[in-house]
UniProtKB/TrEMBL annotation:
Alphabetized Pfam families for the sequence: Multi_Drug_Res (PF00893)
Mode of membrane association: Multi-pass membrane protein
Taxonomic lineage: Bacteria, Pseudomonadati, Pseudomonadota, Gammaproteobacteria, Lysobacterales
GO molecular function terms noted in the UniProt entry: transmembrane transporter activity
Keyword tags: Cell membrane, Membrane, Transmembrane, Transmembrane helix, Transport
Gene (UniProt): sugE
Intracellular or extracellular location(s): Cell membrane
Major site of localization recorded for this protein: membrane
InterPro entries in alphabetical order: EmrE-like, Small_drug/metabolite_transptr, Small_multidrug_res
Name this protein carries in UniProt: Guanidinium exporter
Family note: Belongs to the drug/metabolite transporter (DMT) superfamily. Small multidrug resistance (SMR) (TC 2.A.7.1) family. Gdx/SugE subfamily.
Organism whose genome encodes this protein: Luteimonas deserti
Example of a GO cellular component annotation carried by this entry: plasma membrane
Regions that span the bilayer: 33-50, 57-78, 84-103
Swiss-Prot/TrEMBL GO biological process terms: xenobiotic detoxification by transmembrane export across the plasma membrane
Length: 104
């Protein structure tokens, strides 16, 4: 269950990172409110997951899920470049996340 909570925390991290783009420097109230809510949810869920997962592993997985998800959505939503180097690098992050999960 802790791994599911951690994954959910990572998904909320993606939501707030993408939400930052839509706040336009925190000048738009509704996107700002949604972004702050996603931040709170992400940190709260990470805290719950840390009750039973090792800190280093959980934090690395949380950051990795957020980084990969945000980068992929940046490509999809904002037409950021999807170069081979970038995609291979994202694959390496995913491999690291899987490795940390298997080692825990």
């Amino acid at each position: 269950m802790a791994w599911f909570i951690l994954l959910l925390a990572g998904l909320f991290e993606i939501a707030w990172a993408i939400g930052l783009k839509y706040t336009e420097g925190f000048t738009r109230p509704w996107p700002t409110l949604g972004t702050v809510a996603a931040m709170v949810a992400s940190f709260w869920l990470l805290g719950l997951a840390l009750k039973s997962l090792p800190l280093g592993t959980a934090y690395a997985v949380w950051v990795g899920v957020g980084a990969v998800g945000t980068a992929v959505l940046g490509i999809v939503l904002f037409d950021e470049p999807a170069t081979v180097t970038r995609l291979v690098s994202l694959g390496l992050i995913v491999a690291g996340i899987v490795g940390l999960k298997l080692a825990a």
